[in-house]
Fold this sequence. Notes:
Helix content is 68%, strand content 0%. It has one helix at residues 2-18.
Amino acid sequence: MVARGTMRATIIMKIKLNNPQINKI
């Protein structure tokens, strides 16, 4: 569960870095 949350947070961070316009996630 914890690992899953960390993976999800990392993916979200990557998406934010790739698409700075998406800040509502």
